[in-house]
Specification:
Helix content is 76%, strand content 0%. By secondary structure, the chain is mainly alpha-helical. It folds into 2 domains: 31-100, Tetratricopeptide repeat domain (Serine Threonine Protein Phosphatase 5, Tetratricopeptide repeat); 114-191, Tetratricopeptide repeat domain (Serine Threonine Protein Phosphatase 5, Tetratricopeptide repeat). The radius of gyration is 17 Å and the shape is elongated.
């Protein structure tokens, strides 16, 4: 069961990258102007899979602009890619402290907390993400998984329906089918 959960999380991490464009839009509106060169270099390293260099670059950007929620967010994302969920959670938390309406930071913090190990915390973060960005279909998807872990099947189904109505752009349709099938079996419902 644990391996299946890890695969589900890996798939959702890959799918949520599209949602990270929100972070780029926030960057353009942020005060990162004074640390822009470090930030851009760190993003380039992240895109190349050079996670250690990305963390170093985002750290330099944070030193230039300690109030940047966006730099903390992206460093947290780099830590996630490295598998350092504890450091990622700290950076996402700091991003939220600096910008309490940063929907994607709540979403990523829920991901770093592992919806299967800390489903209550994940539900709280995902609910906040949805509050600030009601069109974030990935948040409904992950919250459905957390609700399933909590055996709150009615709520899980509500989120499944909402995510589907928003048009989940899953490249892994088999994954979604498997999740919905497992939810059917566990909840005793068809929809």
């Amino acid at each position: 069961m644990r391996a299946k959960q890890l695969i589900m999380i890996a798939v959702l991490v890959a799918l949520s990258v599209a949602g990270l464009n929100v972070g780029l839009k926030a960057y353009k509106k942020s005060s990162l102007k004074k640390s822009g060169a470090h930030f851009q270099q760190a993003r380039a390293h992240l895109d190349k899979g050079e996670h250690d260099l990305a963390v170093s670059g985002f750290t330099k950007a944070i030193k230039k602009d300690r109030g940047s929620s966006v730099a903390h967010f992206w460093r947290g994302f780099a830590y996630t890619r490295m598998g350092n969920q504890e450091a990622a959670e700290k950076d996402f938390t700091r991003a939220i402290e600096l910008n309490p309406r940063y929907a994607m930071a709540y979403y990523r913090r829920a991901m770093s907390r592992d919806v299967f190990q800390k489903p209550e915390a994940a539900v709280g973060d995902l609910t906040k993400a949805i509050e600030f960005d009601p069109q974030l279909s990935e948040a409904y998807t992950m919250r459905a998984m957390a609700y399933r872990s909590l055996e709150e099947y009615d709520k899980a189904w509500e989120d499944v329906h909402k995510a589907e109505s928003l048009g989940i752009h899953l490249h892994f349709k088999d994954f979604w089918k498997t999740f919905v099938q497992e939810l059917r079996e566990q909840s005793g419902r068809t929809r």
